Amino acid sequence: MTTATDMNADSYVTADGRTIGGVVMDLKNITLRFGGVVAIKDISFDIREGEIRAIIGPNGAGKSSMLNVISGFYKPQEGEVWFRGAKRPPMKPYQVARQGLARTFQNIALFDGMTVLDNIMTGRLNHMKANIFQQAIWKGKAEREELENREICEKVIDFLEIQHIRKTPVGRLPYGLKKRVELARALAAQPSLLLLDEPMAGMNVEEKEDMSRFILDMNDEFGTTIALIEHDMGVVMDLSDRVVVMDYGKKIGDGTPDEVRNNQDVIDAYLGVAHD
Amino acid sequence: MFYREAGDFKTSYRDDSQTFPIRLDRMGYYVLMFVAFLVVPFFINDYWVNAVFAPFLIYAIAALGLNILTGYAGQVSLGTGGFMAVGAYACYKLMTGFPEVSIVIHIILAGGITAIVGVAFGLPSLRIKGFYLAVATLAAQFFLVWLFNKVPWFYNYSASGQINAPERSVFGVIVTGPNTEAWAKYMICLVFVVVLAWVARNLTRGMMGRKWMGIRDMDIAAEIIGVNPLMAKLSAFAVSSFFVGIAGALFFAVYLGAAEAGEAFGINKSFLILFMIIIGGLGSIFGSFAGAAFMVLMPVFLKNVLVGGMGWPTDLAAHFEFMIVGGLIVLFLIVEPHGLAQLWRLTKEKLRLWPFPH
Lengths: 276, 358
Known about the structure:
The complex is a heterodimer.
Chain A: H1 4-7, E1 12-13, E2 19-20, E3 23-34, E4 37-48, E5 52-56, H2 63-70, E6 78-83, E7 86-87, H3 93-98, E8 101-103, H4 116-122, H5 132-137, H6 141-159, H7 175-188, E9 193-197, H8 205-221, E10 226-229, H9 233-239, E11 242-247, E12 250-255, H10 257-261, H11 264-271
Parallel strand pairs in A: 5-10, 5-11, 8-9, 9-10
Antiparallel strand pairs in A: 1-2, 3-4, 3-6, 6-7, 11-12
Helix pairs in contact in A: 4-7, 6-7
Chain B: H1 13-16, H2 23-43, H3 46-72, H4 80-97, H5 103-122, H6 130-150, E1 163-164, E2 169-170, E3 173-174, H7 182-205, H8 207-217, H9 219-225, H10 229-256, E4 258-259, H11 261-264, H12 267-280, H13 285-309, H14 314-335, H15 339-353
Antiparallel strand pairs in B: 1-4, 2-3
Helix pairs in contact in B: 2-7, 3-7, 3-8, 3-10, 3-12, 3-13, 4-5, 4-6, 4-10, 5-10, 7-8, 7-10, 8-9, 8-10, 12-13, 12-15, 13-14, 13-15
Transmembrane segments (chain B): 27-44, 50-69, 101-123, 130-148, 183-200, 237-259, 271-296, 316-335
Pfam families (chain B): BPD_transp_2
Keywords (chain B): Cell membrane, Membrane, Transmembrane, Transmembrane helix
């Protein structure tokens, strides 16, 4: 059994001076089936504190399914999810969120009818404790909490440079900004593990550069642990500390970007190989 | 003095998140409160209170309640009439069972009982959505009305099957029964409206409101962020039914004085209140008031014009009234599907830029 002590056992310092701590999330022999289709087949990997962990693979490899397993949306038929040194019992997605997991979605999942600020404030919901009666009266605990959390959200807004759209309903925003607001909402939760599902899908070069900068800064300044799925190989190789490669639901590679780049299985999966 | 926020800088988050961030709005609100509390009661008479003010204020409470459920939390309900009936009958049983307790407490308790009933009928919302939920709440409507007609205990075995509000007073002023003065009727409704509108505003601007709106806009995303859908939906049903229950209690005890479930709280009531929030604006406190005002005032206005102004016979005018109100609703939904609240918002946005719109 993993204990708190060996979780921190082998922390190390990266070339750019960041400290990577012990294992935050450990996935052990995960298998996920939809009827007869095996989406994920016996996959194990871990995510360490403070690192940027990428999951890559061709379309249909099971990357998003993997993320959905981590965020509790899918229940794997086999395997165990260990989070912060404890085995996670089967739980609902909102319970997983309360443990300190936040995520963004491949297709933006913002609340269109609410303003940017309200969307980001929603990310704080696990940190706000006022009950319904205190909220109905407002004065006192509810207001105090609202203002304290507003301050945290404003810091996130500053960080992601979206001050000017604070009061705009999300439905009116262009795609690139929506992606940023969704990131802000996840970041506002101050998660111990942040999952990003294709944060750069459909963006132009400048937007990708901005987003990469935010991801790196987030990791650097707040020490946020990030697991991300991305198709842009340049981005993945530049950003991530370690990469998991999936193909047809199986893990075919795991290691630093350089190791993965030179892995024959990975090259085969991406470039194709003659089956004889 | 212009209607704008330029130069009106906010230096704290408290100032920034207030209900009326623009000074002119704030002053308008204070003037409205002043007129409502200190001017209207001195001029009000029986016609005005019975034709306009009491129904407007009571429907505004019911519309607020339904708007919390449908407009904010996105759960369609056609059971509003039935829940109003729960409030009315709960209030009646409490009034007759505990005559020494204040009517105000009875009305609030009636709201609480309705909240419990509302939660019970809200349970299906966890499994079914949209139209199907509307049909499930429709079942609540018919079941509740049937129940209150069928079980004599609810109407204290009276021969007529009606419930009659006994005379009760607050601070020595009679507020229910036939001897109620116009201003007392108006005042008790007004106090409830103001307090409940304040509560609704507090709930909807805080985390509760965000959870509701999250469930409405994208329930899966809300759940992954950490909203418990069960609690969010049931709390919306509870708060909504609390409001609707109080509206029902006031409708019976203060406004009608005597009621019969099928007649006073039939399916028509449910639709009327649903129209109010659609016309007023879903997901807006102001919209609840605007919609209630529209649906209450329009028929009164038309009647005065057609019968009083043009001398038509009453029955003909009544039929035309239906057609015109119906036509207006259709027209409204085509021209401004987001309701009066959206018109009001657009006007305000234009005003902020006036006279230099670019």
